[in-house]
Amino acid sequence: MSAPDPIRLAVQQLSRFPGIGEKSATRLVYWLLRSPKGTAGEIGQAIATLTEGVVECGTCCNLTANDPCRFCADTKRDDHTICVVESPQDLLAFERAAEYRGRFHVLHGAISPLDGVGPDALRLRPLLERLRDGTVKEVIVATDPDVEGDATALYVARLLEGLGVKVSRLAHGISVGTEIEYADAVSLSRALENRRVLS
């Protein structure tokens, strides 16, 4: 009996990544084979130790190597606002934009009954605990502009009713640089709903 083909095995494993099909996985495998000796081992080692070296921040629920995470440890951030996002990737998108200097809270998902994800699966209890001392004045709900994100935003708004905090939602509409004729109906509708007064 012949030994398993390591190239085929590597392609199968890399194909498990989201967004990586067999063609992309094959390209990655052959790139690894052409790379300097040790590259594949270094990448493999980094992946193998990933789950051991990453924890959930005890404050904002972000994924981090240190608890508290660097955003919670930053004393220059505004303690009066919390931006609630679905994922750590969303948090990083806000940081890249460099417009928001408040605190964050990561839900690790959105309410999706079809996928069996209810409110109990989200990190809502830690969010409520962060609002107890009255420091936070506004919660900005920055969930995705889709059915699940809207359902989650509505749930969070209802959950925080009566706690004395302002709850706002990110505006939705037409992306900057998009020509109106190419905008979809939902984006156009949201843009109209969220219009601003110019004068």
Task: Annotate the secondary structure layout.
Elements: H1 6-14, H2 22-34, H3 39-48, H4 50-53, E1 55-56, E2 63-64, H5 70-73, E3 78-85, H6 88-97, E4 102-106, H7 125-130, E5 138-141, H8 147-159, E6 166-169, H9 185-193
Parallel strand pairs: 3-4, 3-5, 5-6
Antiparallel strand pairs: 1-2
Helix pairs in contact: 1-2
Keywords:
four-stranded parallel sheet; alpha/beta; 2 domains; 6 strands; 199 residues; Dna Topoisomerase Vi A Subunit, Chain: A, domain 2; two-stranded antiparallel sheet; single chain
Given this structure, which CATH class of the largest domain is correct?
Alpha Beta
- CATH A-level architecture of the largest domain: 3-Layer(aba) Sandwich
**What is the count of structural domains?**
2
Major sheet attributes: 4 strands, parallel
Order of helices and strands: HHHHEEHEHEHEHEH
Q: Strand order, main sheet: write it out.
A: 4-3-5-6
Textual characterization of the structure:
The chain folds into two domains: about 5-55, RecR Domain 1 (Helicase, Ruva Protein, domain 3, Orthogonal Bundle); about 60-170, 3-Layer(aba) Sandwich (Dna Topoisomerase Vi A Subunit, Chain: A, domain 2). The strands form two sheets. Strands 4-3-5-6 form a four-stranded parallel beta sheet. It has a two-stranded antiparallel sheet with strand order 1-2. It is built from nine helices and six strands. The model has no long low-confidence stretch (mean pLDDT about 90). The chain has helices at about 5-15, 20-35, 40-50, 50-55, 70-75, 90-95, 125-130, 145-160, 185-195; strands at about 55, 65, 80-85, 100-105, 140, 165-170. With about 200 residues, it is an alpha/beta fold.
